[in-house]
Amino acid sequence: MVSVLVTGITELVTNDPALGAGRLGIVRDAAIVVELGASAEAGTASDASAEAGTDTGASAEAQRGRRAVPDGVPASDDRVTWVGLAAAAPPADRVIDVGGRAVVPSFVDSHTHLAFAGDRAAEFAARMAGESYDGGGIASTVAATRGASAEALRARLAALVAEARAQGTGTIEIKSGYGLTVADELRLLRLAREVTGETTFLGAHVVPPEYVGRADDYVDLVTGPMLAECAPHARWIDVFCEPGSPHAFDGDQSRAVLLAGRAAGLGLRVHAGQLGPGPGVRLGVELGAAAVDHGTHLTREDVDALAGSTTVATLLPGVEFSTGSPYPDARALLDAGVRVALATDCNPGTSFTSSMPLCIALAVREMHMTPAEALWAATAGGALALRRDDVGRLGIGARADLTVLDASSHVHLSYRPGVPLARTLALTG
Ligand SMILES: N=CN[C@@H](CCC(=O)O)C(=O)O
Ligand SMILES: [Zn+2]
């Protein structure tokens, strides 16, 4: 067992109020000790998805130490074993001095669509010239994705994951949803599973071109043969619930998708309230979804339902930034006591960014979250949205996913927007 002392930390955000000041559990002039490959000995959850039996390949690797995951995320089973003042730090086998910088838990990006081919730059430009977004452009990404080789999709996915990691992301969820046939959805989930245990089956993204006018038939496919093939490769199921859209799914169809997914052993997530108010948020709460995402158009009833639930509201400000929609009312959610997460929604249509720091800056500037609320939502909030207790925090036993900021305080994430301050810390090599 090798221990690593990380020191020279001006401000350590633990997200554990028992360890430091405030909700962020901040320790100043801090150090942290990590045991490499310590999960078995630490006796903590090795990986919620692996325990759920949905990530067995990676779990077997975890028993042998480091996980068989490419340079993406998550990368290791290294664990935090000590946190405190640098002056009181115990000796360790190796020392990393971050030279007077802030350290935060690596970001937990709980909503992305990274498995796709092509881009939609022309659609974005048209939107900036006044067009509105209605989900219709998804079909062009479906066509490009179906036509791409597995190697091309794998390379694109790896590049996007590496891009996210280079900006401080430690855990990433990836959805299917640009295949929309049994074979294509299965292919996307297999590829996503190569880089993360947090995979989501989104066969109910939109009604594909060959099923236009026959949405119920497509729902039968999604809830039948497609789910049967895809469920073994997914931890979650998701649906784009948007009754006002000709492309997405109404409340009854969404309920059918979620119930079928639950019966197949998957956890639930919902795209809800993106294009207009609808039943998605309350449906997600009713069915015990881990998260309802977007919330661009929330009603008072939605907020009240969330406030009395364990469902996380995941806000995706990159979408509003690149569609021109109004930003969600984050303050109404926070003031009602709703648990809020921030995620990128990285996808070629509505939010082609892998940058959690950008989302934090937008949340502070455009959604009136404090810098502390935004950082919490991008770390601990994302972990809650994935029902994980091993990430999004840097308490004892947590996974040692450390992100270093080239700044003295987490406030700089929103104070210095667009500046590449955040990077995940390599503990080995
Ligand atoms: N709204 C549905 N899905 C994506 C957009 C996908 C696309 O436009 O390609 C989202 O989360 O915004
Ligand atoms: Zn999405």
TrEMBL record:
<feature type="domain" description="Amidohydrolase-related">
    <location>
        <begin position="103"/>
        <end position="407"/>
    </location>
</feature>
<protein>
    <recommendedName>
        <fullName>Imidazolonepropionase</fullName>
        <ecNumber>3.5.2.7</ecNumber>
    </recommendedName>
</protein>
<feature type="binding site">
    <location>
        <position position="111"/>
    </location>
    <ligand>
        <name>Fe(3+)</name>
    </ligand>
</feature>
<dbReference type="Pfam" id="PF01979">
    <property type="entry name" value="Amidohydro_1"/>
</dbReference>
<feature type="binding site">
    <location>
        <position position="120"/>
    </location>
    <ligand>
        <name>4-imidazolone-5-propanoate</name>
    </ligand>
</feature>
<keyword id="KW-0479">Metal-binding</keyword>
<keyword id="KW-0369">Histidine metabolism</keyword>
<feature type="binding site">
    <location>
        <position position="349"/>
    </location>
    <ligand>
        <name>N-formimidoyl-L-glutamate</name>
    </ligand>
</feature>
<feature type="binding site">
    <location>
        <position position="274"/>
    </location>
    <ligand>
        <name>4-imidazolone-5-propanoate</name>
    </ligand>
</feature>
<dbReference type="InterPro" id="IPR032466">
    <property type="entry name" value="Metal_Hydrolase"/>
</dbReference>
<dbReference type="InterPro" id="IPR005920">
    <property type="entry name" value="HutI"/>
</dbReference>
<feature type="binding site">
    <location>
        <position position="347"/>
    </location>
    <ligand>
        <name>N-formimidoyl-L-glutamate</name>
    </ligand>
</feature>
<keyword id="KW-0862">Zinc</keyword>
<feature type="binding site">
    <location>
        <position position="178"/>
    </location>
    <ligand>
        <name>4-imidazolone-5-propanoate</name>
    </ligand>
</feature>
<feature type="binding site">
    <location>
        <position position="345"/>
    </location>
    <ligand>
        <name>Zn(2+)</name>
    </ligand>
</feature>
<feature type="binding site">
    <location>
        <position position="350"/>
    </location>
    <ligand>
        <name>4-imidazolone-5-propanoate</name>
    </ligand>
</feature>
<feature type="binding site">
    <location>
        <position position="178"/>
    </location>
    <ligand>
        <name>N-formimidoyl-L-glutamate</name>
    </ligand>
</feature>
<comment type="similarity">
    <text>Belongs to the metallo-dependent hydrolases superfamily. HutI family.</text>
</comment>
<comment type="function">
    <text>Catalyzes the hydrolytic cleavage of the carbon-nitrogen bond in imidazolone-5-propanoate to yield N-formimidoyl-L-glutamate. It is the third step in the universal histidine degradation pathway.</text>
</comment>
<keyword id="KW-0378">Hydrolase</keyword>
<feature type="region of interest" description="Disordered">
    <location>
        <begin position="44"/>
        <end position="75"/>
    </location>
</feature>
<keyword id="KW-0408">Iron</keyword>
<feature type="binding site">
    <location>
        <position position="271"/>
    </location>
    <ligand>
        <name>Fe(3+)</name>
    </ligand>
</feature>
<dbReference type="GO" id="GO:0050480">
    <property type="term" value="F:imidazolonepropionase activity"/>
</dbReference>
<comment type="pathway">
    <text>Amino-acid degradation; L-histidine degradation into L-glutamate; N-formimidoyl-L-glutamate from L-histidine: step 3/3.</text>
</comment>
<feature type="binding site">
    <location>
        <position position="111"/>
    </location>
    <ligand>
        <name>Zn(2+)</name>
    </ligand>
</feature>
<feature type="binding site">
    <location>
        <position position="205"/>
    </location>
    <ligand>
        <name>4-imidazolone-5-propanoate</name>
    </ligand>
</feature>
<keyword id="KW-0963">Cytoplasm</keyword>
<dbReference type="InterPro" id="IPR006680">
    <property type="entry name" value="Amidohydro-rel"/>
</dbReference>
<dbReference type="InterPro" id="IPR011059">
    <property type="entry name" value="Metal-dep_hydrolase_composite"/>
</dbReference>
<feature type="binding site">
    <location>
        <position position="113"/>
    </location>
    <ligand>
        <name>Zn(2+)</name>
    </ligand>
</feature>
<feature type="binding site">
    <location>
        <position position="271"/>
    </location>
    <ligand>
        <name>Zn(2+)</name>
    </ligand>
</feature>
<feature type="binding site">
    <location>
        <position position="345"/>
    </location>
    <ligand>
        <name>Fe(3+)</name>
    </ligand>
</feature>
<feature type="binding site">
    <location>
        <position position="113"/>
    </location>
    <ligand>
        <name>Fe(3+)</name>
    </ligand>
</feature>
